[in-house]
Write a structure and sequence with these properties.
The complex is a heterodimer of chains A (113) and B (111). By secondary structure, chain A is mostly beta strands. Chain A has no helices and 11 strands. At the A-B interface, strand 5 and strand 10 of A face strand 4 and strand 5 of B.
């Protein structure tokens, strides 16, 4: 079975550029999560969706970050404009519902120069 | 402030040397506690969910237990392939959508 698929796996871009991260959840899963992992802060939830609707976005750091889920099989996390402090590994996870275990993709390693 | 603390930060074991990893939490209204394994360059892989004090779950060489203040991940006779970072996460309140992760224990098992 296909797991959570994220793209790209690596992204290197210059400060000020727009960055778009993509996620395809496991088919049949109704909840989708975006996380950020850094050495300083560990793994932190940014936002999660239930049935394509954002439920908790309290972890989104600021207005430069936005996330969408236009349908059940696709989500994006966008950073505009990007800053060096946004450099991190971004993970997407999905679950059958918000009370079931979350299954993670292999992440996007983002470097902002 | 809610807090999840894992100890030790790093642990080196010889193959076959059993040990335990600790996850202590101060969240109020615990709804569930999760253990994950993370290999370098990969996303966390789900291992266990525990919901109430006294509960235990087992999988191969791993056994997770839960008390009112902490959880332990016991590793019996570990093998080199058990080397990874082990993360615990807690959820509270009405749903398990928002999880609070600990910083992890980096386990190395040498032959």
């Amino acid at each position: 079975d296909a797991g959570v698929i994220q793209s790209p796996r690596h992204e290197v871009t210059e400060m000020g550029q727009e960055v778009t991260l993509r996620c395809k959840p496991i088919s049949g899963h109704n909840s989708l999560f975006w996380y950020r992992q850094t050495m300083m802060r560990g793994l932190e939830l940014l936002i999660y969706f239930n049935n394509n609707v954002p439920i908790d976005d309290s972890g989104m750091p600021e207005d430069r970050f936005s996330a969408k889920m236009p349908n059940a099989s696709f989500s994006t996390l966008k950073i505009q404009p990007s800053e060096p402090r946004d450099s991190a590994v971004y993970f997407c996870a999905s679950s059958l519902d918000e009370n079931q275990p979350q299954h993670f993709g292999d992440g996007t390693r983002l470097s902002i120069l | 402030e809610d807090q999840v603390t894992q100890s030790p930060e790093a642990l080196r074991l010889q193959e076959g040397e059993s040990s335990s990893l600790n996850c202590s939490y101060t969240v109020s209204g615990l709804r569930g506690l999760f253990w994950y394994r993370q290999d370098p360059g990969k996303g966390p892989e789900f291992l266990f969910t525990l919901y109430s004090a006294g509960e235990e779950k087992e999988k191969e060489r791993l056994k997770a237990t839960l008390t009112k203040k902490e959880s332990f991940l016991h590793i019996t006779a570990p093998k080199p392939e058990d080397s990874a970072t082990y993360l615990c996460a807690v959820g509270r309140g009405s749903t398990l959508g928002r999880l609070y992760f600990g910083r992890g224990t980096q386990l190395t098992v040498w032959p």
